[in-house]
């Protein structure tokens, strides 16, 4: 895709020697290691950093940052590499700090429903480690991302409709700033009115304001009862209309996912399921035994009024797990629909009253332009993704898909929505961000970036253009 | 109390003339109006601004701000004057913008569960205006505060345990910046990963980074069933222990308030109630009829295991309303315990496992120093207030109370809690803030303040010291 190469100075040999001296075999200049760290799940070609260092503590990250600060060298934090918008690409070279070895759960406080972990702990790891406490951490952005990365991109996923996103679930962060100083942004208190909300400022800042090295998150008691169900609808509109009515009634569904017909086909083929090939909703209910039954009855009634088929229940944990694994693998399932293709993912989020309209107009646009695509959505939040399969060697096809994406973003913004519900900005959405927020707000963001990172060393070239002051 | 007078230049007569010309009778230099606007519910004596202007639109606020910016004149936003830490005191003089005439509900979107209001709309007003929609806005910081003020102080109150605080419930803001430019910080989408979270940065910034002129908030469906109950306990420890167990089980209580014995006495006398004179918890349950019954049974069982008396139920709306009005009037009730006194309010919030310990140690300290006080708390969040009655003419008494407060803050911070759960920093907690966050984080806050308000015009002298860089 777009060649993102930017002129940048090579890594200073003094810096290289200093880091190699300190980190020995946790320091790599190998081409394959660098290429791996210059790649994410997005459409972009690799943009490798000059050096990869594996840090094991906040102090080590601070020490790397201090060195890079004195050598004016860019620094990019790397977790699981599962970001989707080019977040980790080293477009100005520099040092990549791999945080995957910072994988220690520092403290679990079951009585307070909190845990503090190093940034490299993944969502599956934390859930495994707290399994016996009767608690769980709900945020699940498909991939087994790290909690540091999920904080940095303000991730969410299927459970967000009930439990919120990383915005609502991070209590405090430890952050290494541009000059190597270390701050703590909060405490374990459930709420606070103590000064500027630095926690929320760093959540979603994609490594451009500081490097998150520790995360304190909220945990939740495992519900007494969980049940999941699949339900087919005659049309996208009927499925989405059901969701709108469910949300308006305040039914506390834990998950409600939309999958369109082609998505169902892809998932059936990839995950060996036999879901009815129609638009469908995937529900999960959490609560007491009676509460779950009550929610399910209410939701079935609404769905039936919108012409749905009967619910197919998955009450056994293994059936539920198979269903959600299939959902989480939708991205990979889709890729199989067109061998050799790559996927361009989109990520709009609109007020739910506009959701059906936004999805339907987007479907029409995709069909009109002959795209191979599927739409899946965290529809309880008004968030959906169009996954478009393109031939990576066909620039016309790519331009076509990007144009559909641009029109979808226009549509979402006109409906008072956002260009990204959960994937973040990275490289891919910098122009959309300007369109969404407008020049004055972008200028405020830029001034914050310039203050907290005056040398433009922290994941430079992402989220906002460093030196372009927009005319207001 | 402390004399907060700071040297400041008188208002420029040119600026005065310009504002009087534009705002005519919505512009006042009268002593009583100025004194009213230089006072909040805190312990501080009035520090009047030089001028009060009543704005009616974002454009008017922007126009005032532009003028004040060019005349280097401080600007303080004023809503209902119900802040508790000296937030609105004009310690450097300047112009107070009274936003109470910005009291228009701009749009209600019942289908999306959102409303957008001008900053001067109060929490009671919005609930009145949406009464027929089947929705409500839950955040209730006792006073009938404005939504602008509540956003600016990151307010919460009794419903926060279930519905969150202003941090979780503001979707977007319109903000007038220091130079008079206007930004929108978000959309009506329920979630977004689009750039730095400016919404959360301004929520809780107490008018020091910009002036909030419009607020988009989340609304909630009125629950099908609501019931409230009062329950007495043999001791503070037993009451708090019950709350800890309830939270750990994940019971979605809508409200759970603690009132100590002296608080019950004060409320009984002030609100003509006959609550048993023992530590008590006040519960409210929201949900379906069955859900409420189930929650109530579970909670009663836990309370009983901790030695509680039976629940006294208030199922009729008028009984419930009387109970919650009594709770909200606790502050005024308490003042009656000692005619002529004034109250110093504290506002710690700790991880819930430390709550009993924190309250008990604080009670011992208060008793040891002969204070007249009561403790009330939003205990589901780990948040409690000690209201200490002091003779405003007795400096020893005041110093004594402040020393107890200081020790309580030390205690809360040592327990990984915060010096303010919901009241904010204002003037009163600036030193506590440093203690809580440490020098590096405070320096980050200061750099943000200096960037967004380079002339130090926005509510100067609050939250952080403008020019004191702390040694790291």
From TrEMBL, chains A, B:
It is an enzyme of class 1 (oxidoreductase). Pfam families: FAD-oxidase_C (PF02913), FAD_binding_4 (PF01565). InterPro entries: FAD-bd_oxidored_4_C, FAD-bd_PCMH, FAD-bd_PCMH-like_sf, FAD-bd_PCMH_sub2, FAD-linked_Oxase-like_C, Oxid_FAD_bind_N, Vanillyl_alc_oxidase_C-sub2. Coiled coil: none annotated. PROSITE patterns: FAD_PCMH (PS51387). Its EC number is 1.1.2.4. Transmembrane segments: none annotated. Residues 44-222 form the FAD-binding PCMH-type domain. Signal peptide: none annotated. Keywords: FAD, Flavoprotein, Oxidoreductase, Transit peptide. Belongs to the FAD-binding oxidoreductase/transferase type 4 family. This is D-lactate dehydrogenase (cytochrome). It comes from Solimicrobium silvestre.
